[in-house]
């Protein structure tokens, strides 16, 4: 994320890696939650970095989505993605929270994870930043 922020000329907003890490701690679902208000230009920069990251990750995202469509014949890639994501959530999020428990529950989370992947897949286009911004602001 830091190298992409430098590539996109966000040195003022993210002067170092610690500044990006501090913004990640604003998530109320994390174990180490810090309640700071995210400024609009920080939010905007994070969205642009996310949409730029999806351009690099699009082949992987697409293959995961295809493995979900062909789950009966090739479940390995989706299962690997799902297990890795669950492990990350358990490591970094507050597992006592009801919302996090819903994320970990496989039956409820499958549709949610596929929705996230579809949103990220749509963000890799030229208008991806705008799509992601509209999607997040309409939640």
Task: Describe the secondary structure blueprint for this structure.
Elements: H1 2-7, H2 17-24, H3 40-69, H4 76-92, H5 98-104, H6 106-122, H7 128-137
Summarize the structure.
With 139 residues, the protein is mainly α.
Using the alpha-carbon principal axes, give the shape: globular
| Oligomer category | single chain
Report the C-alpha radius of gyration, rounded: 16 Å
Helix content: 55-70%
Q: Count every helix, treating DSSP H or I runs of 4 or more residues as helices.
A: 7
Helix and strand content put the structural class at mainly alpha
Total number of strands? 0
The total domain count is 1
Structure notes:
With 139 residues, this protein is mostly helical. It has one domain. It has seven helices and no strands. It has helices at residues 2-7, 17-24, 40-69, 76-92, 98-104, 106-122, 128-137. The longest helix is centred in the middle third of the chain and has 30 residues, at 40-69. The protein is globular, with a radius of gyration of 16 Å.
Summarize this structure as a short list of keywords or feature phrases.
139 residues; mainly alpha
């Amino acid at each position: 994320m830091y190298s992409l922020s430098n590539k996109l000329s966000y040195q003022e907003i993210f002067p170092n890696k610690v500044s990006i890490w501090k913004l990640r701690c604003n998530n109320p679902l994390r174990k180490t939650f810090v309640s700071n208000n995210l400024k609009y230009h920080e939010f905007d920069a994070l969205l642009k970095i996310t949409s730029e990251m999806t351009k690099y990750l699009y082949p992987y995202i697409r293959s995961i989505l295809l493995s979900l469509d062909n789950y009966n014949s090739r479940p390995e890639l989706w299962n690997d993605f799902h297990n890795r994501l669950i492990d990350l959530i358990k490591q970094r999020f507050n597992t006592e929270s009801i919302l996090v428990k819903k994320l970990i529950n496989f039956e409820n989370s499958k549709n949610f994870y596929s929705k996230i992947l579809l949103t990220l897949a749509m963000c890799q286009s030229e208008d991806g930043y705008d799509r992601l911004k509209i999607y997040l602001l309409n939640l």
